[in-house]
Design goal:
By secondary structure, this protein is of the alpha+beta class. It has four domains: about 90 residues, Alpha-Beta Plaits (2-Layer Sandwich), CATH 3.30.70; about 300 residues, Aminopeptidase; about 90 residues, Immunoglobulin-like; about 160 residues, Sandwich (Immunoglobulin-like). Helix content is about 20%, strand content about 30%. It contains twelve helices and 35 strands. The strands form eight sheets. The protein has a six-stranded mixed sheet, sandwiched between helices. Strand 31 and strand 32 form a beta hairpin. It is elongated. The structure holds ligand BES and zinc ion. Ligand BES binds next to helix 8.
Length: about 675
């Protein structure tokens, strides 16, 4: 082992490192003009090192490895004085680092040998302070463009299997597409990268940083596809989706004249499916060149929403600190996206090539590992399996946008202040709307329309992202009467125009329930799109009072009789309505709105049930809802109507106890609502 202490540094400070875990050697390191040296420091001092070097206008150190309290860094020898001064002044630590002759020696000093695998963070200070670029890019990416790239890659080439000629053709198509977006920008290059392990080339776009070009941010996806047993491999999700997602981010960056401070490289890798071949060569070449890659994002499978989550961050073969950074970026910029973590369990994609080369990589993924697209690696990995849309991938284009904006920073240099034109084409003024009504608009803009929102009484009722812009609006979600409808168009630069509004009349047949003295609960006798108990269920037992209590079919479940009205629990109203505004029928999704008086947000629970046959109910559990606050609250859940002409729902509003269709308790209220179904 060749571990050496940099004697001069120790002498300057006149004291001994607290982190001297490595065996010490006495020979001083020979002076050289300026070269890379390796140091180990206390992990807690990492921030100070970064700040001191940044403050002195010096390049950031590169993480070589990390194990718990000790971090190994590669720095320039000329930076050692700055670091030692800072260690002394800021970290109040004597000789707070050890210099090592080689990377191996520094890693060995961590005490674990091959310590890159234990790496948990990079010498990167993650900040979130570039909202203009983050929002500018994220708001401009469009589903339609991602969709058309996926369509191209998955249908124009029978296979993108790495040895096929069509794989190379597809790579050339991507190269040309990226080149077209780059136009004549002299700071952008697009090139094919050849490999030794495959005949297929990768495609690399480099946008050279304006301020810290040696720091590199990599975004990748893989170009190749595979299929078994047939040779047709559309690979729409795996991984045309990733390439298409990146392609849309590139389009918007070029449109808006994004100039990153650090260098950004987009990569469409060759031969991932046969062992991460392209990415391994590229990542190892960066490592061999000691390239300062500060972060890597891999997009492999972005367009199949197999789980309820929007974005799933894989925790294995990725960097925990960068994952935390990305999670934070989503919270800040994309608060509507839900996110969670999962793990591949193996080196499942190209991020692992970068992780293995010692760089911080992440992979935001389409679903939980247990729920990923089951059609990958087959002839059925087509866009049709994602409903022919790129809606899920669009979220990942936004995630990649905010990641680049905040890790590579920089500015947008092109702006367009001309707002779009927009006109509402349907409905027309004075129209009467019932059930589902189509809202349509025409919109145009020189830099493209990113979305059109349909506003009902000024609030967003629905959004369309592709022309022709239209939205199927359920008019029964609003009260009968006069309403104003308008369309608001957004261009790729965030300029907006709202059309003039039209006034329409909404007229839906809602049905008020009447008390059915035979079944002993409120009932809507004729089929409609909604059934509302009105005031029939207000209160509980003698409190309120709840007329006709207990209002459970055939008095099958009694209410608790303790407490007082609107101090203690009561289930006051039940309403069932179809989501699409049309009449109740088997297979339709309906929404239950239960209005309750909440006493406690911890002890009170609402259990909802339905039955296909109100005359002889078998209660099927729908869900339990915990009220979000006390007092009068309306809690909602959806379910699908079964077959049956007289159906019912039951609400069990209970204080403590557990889920059951009848829970005895002094404060519990049980109510049923019966309604006719086609
Ligand atoms: N996109 C997959 C990886 C994947 C599949 C991630 C399912 C998460 C869920 C990738 O293209 C792939 O197929 N990778 C190979 C491994 C590689 C080293 C050959 C695999 O999973 O078999
Ligand atoms: Zn694959």
């Amino acid at each position: 082992m060749n571990v050496k202490r940099l004697a001069s540094v120790v002498l300057v400070l006149g004291c001994v490192s607290a982190f001297a875990k490595a065996p010490e050697a006495s020979a001083p390191v020979a002076k050289a003009p300026d070269r890379d040296v390796y140091i180990t420091i206390g992990t807690d001092a990492l921030e100070h090192v970064n700040a001191a070097l940044a403050g002195a206008g010096l390049v950031a150190p590169t993480l070589a490895g990390q194990k718990g309290e000790v971090t190994a860094l590669r720095v320039r020898e000329s930076q050692l004085n700055t670091i030692s001064r800072m260690m002394h002044e800021k970290a109040h630590r004597c000789g707070g680092f050890i210099a090592h002759e080689s990377e191996e020696a520094a890693l060995a000093a961590l005490g674990g040998g091959d310590s890159v695998k234990g790496m948990t963070s990079l010498a990167v200070t993650y900040t979130t302070d570039n909202p203009t670029v983050a929002n500018g890019l994220a708001n401009a990416v469009q589903e339609t463009n991602i969709r058309s790239t996926i369509t191209q890659l998955s249908t124009a080439y029978a296979t993108r299997y790495h040895t096929s000629t069509t794989a190379a053709t597809a790579a050339n198509w991507v190269k040309t597409q990226w080149q077209t977006y780059a136009g004549s920008r002299s700071d952008v290059t697009v090139a094919l990268q050849t490999h030794t392990g495959t005949v297929m080339p990768s495609v690399v776009m480099t946008i050279t940083g304006t301020a810290q070009p040696s720091e590199i941010v990599v975004l990748g996806a893989h170009m190749d596809s595979t299929s078994s047993p047939t040779s047709n491999a559309p690979g729409a999700d795996d991984d045309a989706s990733g390439v298409a997602t990146l392609t849309e981010v590139i389009r918007v960056m070029m449109l808006q004249g994004y100039r990153p401070a650090k260098t950004v490289k987009f990569m469409a890798y060759a031969a991932e499916e046969v062992g991460l071949v392209g990415s391994k060569e590229i990542a190892n070449a960066h490592k061999a060149a000691a390239a300062n890659v500060i972060g890597v994002m891999q997009l492999d499978m972005t367009n199949y929403q197999g789980s309820s989550w929007d974005v799933v961050l894989m925790t294995d073969y990725t960097n925990a600190a960068q994952n935390t950074f990305i999670t934070g970026l989503m919270t800040t910029y994309l608060p509507t996206l839900t996110k969670t973590t999962s793990s591949c369990g193996y080196a499942c994609s190209d991020h692992a090539s970068w992780t293995n080369a010692g760089y911080a990589a992440s992979i935001p993924f389409e679903a939980l590992m247990s729920q990923y697209n089951p059609y990958i690696h087959t002839v059925n990995d087509t866009l049709a399996r994602s409903a022919g849309m790129a809606t899920h991938a669009l979220k990942f284009a936004k995630v990649a946008s905010v990641y680049v904006a905040e890790l590579a920073k920089g500015t947008l240099t092109v702006s367009d202040t001309t707002p779009p034109t927009v006109a509402l084409t349907a409905p027309t003024a004075g129209a009467t709307l019932t059930g589902t009504a189509t809202l349509s608009a025409n919109a145009s803009d020189a830099s493209g329309i990113s979305k059109v929102e349909f506003l009902v009484d000024g609030a967003v009722a629905g959004t369309a992202t592709a022309s022709p812009y239209s939205y199927a609006w359920n008019s029964s979600s609003t009260a009968n009467g006069s309403h104003s409808i308008a369309a608001k168009a957004y261009d790729a630069f965030g300029n907006t125009t709202t059309s003039s509004a039209v006034t329409v009349t909404v007229s839906n047949t809602t049905s008020g329930a009447g008390y059915d003295s035979a079944l002993k609960a409120p009932r809507c006798f004729s089929v409609s799109a909604s059934c509302d108990s009105g005031t029939l269920l207000n209160g509980r037992g003698g409190m309120g009072p709840e007329v006709n209590m207990p209002n459970t079919i055939n008095s099958s479940c009694a209410d608790g009789l303790s407490g007082s009205y609107h101090v203690d629990e009561s289930n006051d109203r039940l309403k069932v309505s179809t989501l699409d505004g049309t009449s109740f029928a088997a297979g339709k999704t309906v929404k239950i709105d239960a209005t309750v008086y909440v006493y406690s947000t911890t002890a009170d629970k609402l259990d909802l049930y339905y039955t296909a046959n109100a005359a002889s109910p078998t209660w099927t559990f729908i869900t339990t809802i915990t009220p979000p606050g006390t007092g009068i609250r309306t809690l909602s859940a959806n379910y699908t109507l079964p077959t049956g002409t007289v159906q019912a729902v039951r609400a069990v509003f209970r204080y403590n106890g557990s889920v059951a269709s009848c829970v005895s308790g002094s404060y519990n209220d049980h109510d049923d609502l019966i309604f006719a179904v086609q």
